[in-house]
């Protein structure tokens, strides 16, 4: 057995392998190049579309976030205004209640003063009437007895002692 080792391959084999490779390349290029290229192009377009959609979604999300933050700030401001209005209204109600209470107290005081005045006038009238009755009683007792000055003084002292008892009215 003789083994020959060639460093350079056989020229005919090399041409046949090269021809087979070119035919295979041509067949594969015709059959697979277009579908694979189209698939790769579709894949690239799909990836680009997903990237664009993601960017649009991100921008939309940022816009919504900004809008919500604005609405939250407006809601906080509105709630603060409502609280402030409620506080002011509470103060107004408190002030009006205090004013009404003061007016009512003044009315009660005025009414009490008028009642006191009326009662005072009644008491004065009653005292005047009783004083008149006393004067008439004293006069009638003085007339019943014909008396001198000492007797008259004695009668007055007796009358003063009897005032307030039932005896003096008889």
TrEMBL record:
Carries keyword Transport? yes
The reply on keyword Ubl conjugation is no
Q: Which UniProt keywords apply?
A: ATP synthesis, Cell membrane, CF(0), Coiled coil, Hydrogen ion transport, Ion transport, Membrane, Transmembrane, Transmembrane helix, Transport
Provide the coiled-coil residue spans.
37-122
Q: How does it sit in the membrane?
A: Single-pass membrane protein
What top-level branch of life does the organism fall under? Bacteria
Per UniProt, subcellular location reads as: Cell membrane; Endomembrane system
**Which InterPro entries does this UniProt record tie to the protein?**
ATP_synth_B-like_membr_sf, ATP_synth_b/b'su_bac/chlpt, ATP_synth_F0_bsu_bac, ATP_synthase_B_chain
State a single Gene Ontology molecular function: proton-transporting ATPase activity, rotational mechanism
HAMAP family according to UniProt: ATP_synth_b_bprime
Quaternary arrangement and interactors, per the entry? Answer: F-type ATPases have 2 components, F(1) - the catalytic core - and F(0) - the membrane proton channel. F(1) has five subunits: alpha(3), beta(3), gamma(1), delta(1), epsilon(1). F(0) has three main subunits: a(1), b(2) and c(10-14). The alpha and beta chains form an alternating ring which encloses part of the gamma chain. F(1) is attached to F(0) by a central stalk formed by the gamma and epsilon chains, while a peripheral stalk is formed by the delta and b chains.
Family, per the entry? Belongs to the ATPase B chain family.
Q: What does this protein do?
A: Component of the F(0) channel, it forms part of the peripheral stalk, linking F(1) to F(0). F(1)F(0) ATP synthase produces ATP from ADP in the presence of a proton or sodium gradient. F-type ATPases consist of two structural domains, F(1) containing the extramembraneous catalytic core and F(0) containing the membrane proton channel, linked together by a central stalk and a peripheral stalk. During catalysis, ATP synthesis in the catalytic domain of F(1) is coupled via a rotary mechanism of the central stalk subunits to proton translocation.
Xref: PANTHER family: ATP SYNTHASE SUBUNIT B (PTHR33445:SF1), ATP SYNTHASE SUBUNIT B', CHLOROPLASTIC (PTHR33445)
Protein's recorded name: ATP synthase subunit b
| Gene source species | Keratinibaculum paraultunense
């Amino acid at each position: 057995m003789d083994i020959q080792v060639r460093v350079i391959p056989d020229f005919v084999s090399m041409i046949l392998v090269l021809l087979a490779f070119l035919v295979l390349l041509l067949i594969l290029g015709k059959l697979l190049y277009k579908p694979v290229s189209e698939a790769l192009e579709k894949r690239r377009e799909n990836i680009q579309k997903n990237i664009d959609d993601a960017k649009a979604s991100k921008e939309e999300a940022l816009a919504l976030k900004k809008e919500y933050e604005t609405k939250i700030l407006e809601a906080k401001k509105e709630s603060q205004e409502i609280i402030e209005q409620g506080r002011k209204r509470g103060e107004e109600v408190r002030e009006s209640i205090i004013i009404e209470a003061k007016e009512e107290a003044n009315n009660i005081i005025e009414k009490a003063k008028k009642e006191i005045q009326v009662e005072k006038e009644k008491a004065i009238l009653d005292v005047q009437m009783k004083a008149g009755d006393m004067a008439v009683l004293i006069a009638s007792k003085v007339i019943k007895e014909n008396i001198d000055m000492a007797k008259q003084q004695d009668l007055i002292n007796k009358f003063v002692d009897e005032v307030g008892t039932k005896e003096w009215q008889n």
